[in-house]
Each structure stands twice: as C-alpha cells, then as structure tokens.
Specification:
Domain Dihydroxy-acid/6-phosphogluconate dehydratase N-terminal: 47-361
Largest sheet: 5 strands, mixed
Shape: globular
Helix content: 25-40%
Protein name: Dihydroxy-acid dehydratase family protein
Number of strands: 14
Strand content: 5-15%
Bound molecules: FE2/S2 (inorganic) cluster, magnesium ion
Structural class: alpha/beta
Domain Dihydroxy-acid/6-phosphogluconate dehydratase C-terminal: 371-576
GO molecular function: hydro-lyase activity; iron-sulfur cluster binding; metal ion binding
Distance between the termini: 29 Å
Number of helices: 23
Strand order of the largest sheet: 11-10-9-13-14
Pfam family, one: ILV_EDD_C
C-alpha cells in the first residue's frame, strides 16, 4: 500500500496546483501558469518545481554567464523528472553598484525569501558567483528551508599583460601605486586593469568571489568541484546539468539547507578559508548565514578554529596564480583532501549536497600541482587565519595576517624589544572623501610611525560598509619606498587587496563604537600577540569625548528609501550585518500553506 502514488509525501507546490480542499484556488493558480504553455501533467503530477534563482543579467557581468548555464540546469532538472521556473534575483554587481554592492546583499536576500516562500516552488538552484550573490542566496535558502543547491558561475580565465598574470582587483591596487609613482600613464593604467578580466565569470583572484564560492562548496552546498571550474570551460556546463539533476533528487529526499549547513559545516568552512587565504569579507557573510540558520558563530570562532591553519593555495593576492591554475590543481576538493590527509578538517563526516560526506567526496583527492595547491607539510605560510582584535577602539575587528609583506613585518612586528606589537600616532579620517582630500597634505606630517584610521565606513556610516580601509600611504612616502602603513577602520577591504589592515571594526563609529572617540595625534597601540588595539587615552578623557559627541556622527544622509530602512535595522559586521528581526524566521517555506 505504501507504494501507491497517493501515499507519497505531497510536493509543496501541489498546495497551489492540486489542493483538494480548494478547487477554485487550484484552478486560478493553474490557469495562470498554464498560460505560457506548461501542462497539467507538469504542474499536477509528481514533478518537483525547481526555481533557478537567476543572478545573471546585463547589470551583473560577473554572473551573466548564468543566463546560458541555466539552460543546462534546466536540461538536468527535466532529465530527472522536474520542472523549472527561472526567477529573477535583485542584481548585485560588486563593482558597478553605488554606493556599495554590500548594501544590496540584504535586499537580494529579502526579495529571494519572498519569492521562494510565496510561490509554488519545491527546491531551488542558487546561481552564485559575484561576491555578495553567494551569501545573499545562501541566507535566503537558510530562511526558507526548502531543498537548495548552489551552482557557481565559475571564475574568469586568467588575465595576462606583457607575459605576466594579472588578477582581477589585485592589479588595480598595483596599477594605482604604479600610476601614483609615475611609472605608467592614464592609458596604460586602463589597459593594465582591463587585462585582468579576459572572459565571462567571477574574479579570478582569491578575492571575495573565489572565497565565497569555495566556501559554499566547503559548507557542502555545491557538488564537489563546482566552485573553481572556469566559467567558459566545458566542465562548467556539465556541472550545471548535474546540479539540475541533483536538486530534483534532493527534493525527493527532503534534504534541506539546515541539514547541510550545520555548526560542523561552518567549522569546516572556517578551516578551508584559512587554507585558501580567503577574504576578510568571509566572516561577515558566514556569520550572517549561520545566524539565519540559528547556528551560533562569531569572530572568536574564526580565530580559534582558523588562525593556526596553514595557507595552501598560492593565488593572488597572497600568492602568484589565478583561477584557471586553481581549478587545474584540483580546486576545493584537492584543498579539502590535503587538509583531510593531515587531520586538519574538523568534521570529515559533514554531509554535502550530493548526499555524501566530505571524506567520501574528497578523501582521496590531492593537489595536482603542488606549486598552486601546497601540501600541509610544505605550506605557503603557517598560521594563515584571521586574528580577532579587541580593545577600547572596538569590540571586534579582523586582521588577515597572511597578506603581511616582509617590508611591513620587519618595520612593525620584528622589534626584538616588543615583538608582534607596535605603537603609532593616529591620523584619523572621518570619511572616504576626507581621506582622498587630505592623504597627500604635507600638513598631516605622516611618517612610517603613523597609523591611518578610517571611520564612517561601516554598515550604518557608509551605508553597507565601504571597502576602503586599505589606505595607501601619501605619495611622498610611496616615493621613499614605504608601501604600507598600518590601517584600522570600521569599513571593509576588498578581498583582492593585499593590505594587512585591521577592519570590519564593530561596533562602528556611527553606532557609537570606540572609533568615534579617537583623535588625530592620539597614540594607538596594536598588539598582535594579545590581540588588542587601544588608544592610549584615559577612561575619563574618553568619557568626556563621548559626552561631546553629537547624535549619529559619521553618517551622512541616506540617498534612497532602502538605505534609510537598512540603517535602522542593520546589525554590526561582527554579527553578520544581518537585519534585526530577520533571523527569527526559520524554515518558513516548510510551514506554509496558501
Ligand atoms: Fe564580481 Fe569580482 S566583481 S566577482
Ligand atoms: Mg569587493
């Protein structure tokens, strides 16, 4: 009796299309979805309806290839007995969106939640790629709770200029310095930067995009190997097909995001992030995704689980190679295989989207090019994770020590009397505009013993948080060969930047954090051994400064309705920059009846 079709668990979409208790509504829902040629067989039989959450569009060049790939997803879904409905996701283009794409992560999240919750959908393929598209879509599937699988668009091909690899984003920082130092003119500047983006796909460096796509795989939300296949490669289309097939099975198995993205999965992802040299945006996004699942995760976890993990992946900005090399060396499965072999992956038994565990998927995978993906016995660097700094400047701020260059290390961290600590005179900028206006002003008298501080660049201050903490020194110091000063700020930094900044400071200045109180000329002490960052100012003086602060300083007026709403509701970076109240809603798609 159990194999009679009527005993099968009913698909969620049948609450719209085949609801015996409400034939009138069923007819209404049906006619509107039949009108473009779908049949009753497709909508009322036992075929799961699979959403393709489409993040590709003309506005989003990094993800635009998803428009093509979705055809292969559709073929896979159809072959496995499902029906697809492609749905638009609010566009998030990292480099094109003003004031910052980060502002729109939560907007795309909210809109996808409503689409998945309010329409007749049984499962979803998440088209991930460009930086914020990955966390926005993972957050949304966490909230809705229907079966979900992610598909990376894949990185761009390697960029080349005069016989050398040029990586997206990273080349901009280098070209900017060359331009400032007078080594290249305006046209060469444009040509050099454009050379880094030779094809469709996401950034080919280990920036936030490669990081978040790799971590979506490390969390178990993609098929093994999916993150790193370059967008134009044939394997990318094949991966799209397999992903489409698999989501149909996942719906029949009722394999939901909460079963895959467990606390164990996040711990694995933190370790993988260190091994790949992942972006400082990763803690914001993973802490945010975890919050929507009810999984506790904070920046202390990042330091405790991630700091002592070695850097294995030799990709720019910390290393030399790019996306194609990463894929050819084995991609994420090879990184996880190397970590497993050394006993460094904390949870080998974590479940993944293909129904297998991490160790089943990656246990026998190894690097196919030890120049690009190193074994644990011969890493690029030891202790490649993030430090979580605290003090009277902020409660939490992240530092990526793996990108500290020798020049910086020698100047600031290798003083035998005070190893791993330094003190300097603060130079404080109240906004990005303030920084640009004054950085080269000789009156600031900036020397190599100064610490640059950027405030007004956090989620409320900017809004969304600007990627501006990696501040270049004044031109007169660059010409003297000083390429990096210590930088501290409540904004973010591009994952493609190689600056050893202390960033994502929470709470931000506009939220009354300690950064609101610091003044140019204050002595600031950073101790990387104790993980502290403090202004050398008495508590009494800090109290007096706080009393003198106006209402919501360091936050200019909002320019749009969403900015207004976002600022009112947003939590600090350390808490994932999620919206207050949003995480009270979990697995809402499972409970819904129309
Ligand atoms: Fe879109 Fe880098 S700007 S992936
Ligand atoms: Mg960025």
């Amino acid at each position: 009796m159990t194999d009679k079709p009527s005993d099968k668990p009913k698909l969620r979409s049948r609450q719209w299309f085949d609801n015996p208790e409400d034939r009138e509504m069923t007819a209404l829902y049906l006619e509107r979805y039949l009108n473009y040629g779908l049949t009753r067989e497709e909508l009322q039989g036992d075929k799961p309806i699979i959403a393709i959450a489409q993040t590709g569009s003309d506005l989003s060049p990094c993800n635009r290839h998803h428009v093509e790939l979705s055809k292969r997803v559709r073929d896979g879904v159809t072959a496995a007995g499902g029906v697809t409905m492609e749905i638009p996701v609010h566009p998030i283009q990292e480099t094109g969106k003003r004031p910052t794409a980060m502002l729109d992560r939560n907007l795309a999240y909210l809109s996808l939640v409503e689409s998945l919750f309010g329409y007749p959908l049984d499962g979803v393929v998440l088209n991930i790629g460009c930086d914020k598209t990955t966390p926005a879509l993972l957050m949304a599937c966490a909230t809705v709770g229907i079966p979900a699988i992610a598909l990376s668009v894949g990185p761009m091909l390697n960029g080349w200029f005069r016989g050398e690899r040029t990586g997206s984003g990273t080349i901009v920082w280098k070209a900017r310095e060359m331009h400032a130092a007078g080594e290249i003119d305006d046209d060469e500047f444009m040509e050099l930067v454009a050379s880094s983006a030779p094809s469709t796909g996401y950034c080919n460096t280990m920036g936030t995009a490669t990081t978040m796509n790799s971590l979506a795989e490390a969390l178990g939300m993609q098929l093994p190997g999916s993150a790193a296949i370059p967008a134009p490669y044939r394997e990318r289309g094949q991966m799209a097909y397999h992903t489409g097939r698999r989501i149909v099975e996942m719906v029949h198995e009722d394999l939901t995001p909460a079963q895959i993205m467990t606390r164990e999965a996040f711990e694995n992802a933190i370790v993988v992030n260190s091994a790949i040299g992942g972006s400082t945006n990763a803690p914001i996004h993973l802490n945010g995704i975890a919050r929507h699942l009810g999984v506790p995760l904070d920046n202390d976890d990042w330091q405790r689980l991630g700091y002592e993990v070695p850097l294995l992946v030799n990709l720019q900005p910390a290393g030399e190679y790019l996306g194609e090399d990463y894929h050819r060396a084995g991609g994420v499965p090879a990184v996880i295989g190397e970590l497993l072999a050394a006993g460094l992956l904390p949870h080998p038994e974590a479940l993944t989207a293909n129904g297998q565990t991490m160790v089943e998927n990656c246990g026998d995978k190894r690097s196919e090019n030890p120049d690009v993906i190193k074994p644990v016995s011969d890493p690029m660097l030891k202790d490649a994770g993030f430090l979580n700094l605290k003090g009277n400047l902020f409660d939490s701020a992240i530092m990526k020590t793996s990108v500290i260059k020798d020049e910086f290390r020698q100047r600031y961290l290798e003083n035998p009397d005070d190893p791993m600590a330094f003190e300097g005179r603060a130079i404080v900028f109240d906004s990005i505009e303030d920084y640009h206006a004054r950085i080269d002003d000789p009156a600031l008298d900036i020397d190599e013993h100064c610490i640059l501080i950027m405030r007004g660049a956090g989620p409320i201050g900017y809004p969304g948080g600007a990627e501006v903490v990696n501040m270049r020194p004044p031109n007169y110091l660059l010409k003297k060969g000083i390429h990096a000063l210590p930088c501290v700020g409540d904004g973010r930094q591009s994952g493609t930047s190689g600056s050893p900044s202390i960033l994502n400071a929470s709470p931000e200045a506009a939220d009354g954090g300690g950064l609101a109180l610091v003044q140019t000329g204050d002595r600031v002490r950073i101790d990387l051994k104790k993980c502290t960052a403090d202004m050398q100012v008495s508590d009494a003086d800090l109290d007096a400064r706080r009393r003198a602060l106006g209402q919501m300083p360091f936050a200019p007026d909002s320019q749009s309705p969403w900015q207004e709403i976002f600022r009112e509701k947003v939590r600090p970076f350390a808490e994932g920059m999620t919206l207050q109240g949003a995480d009270a809603y979990r697995e809402i798609g499972k409970k819904y009846t129309p």
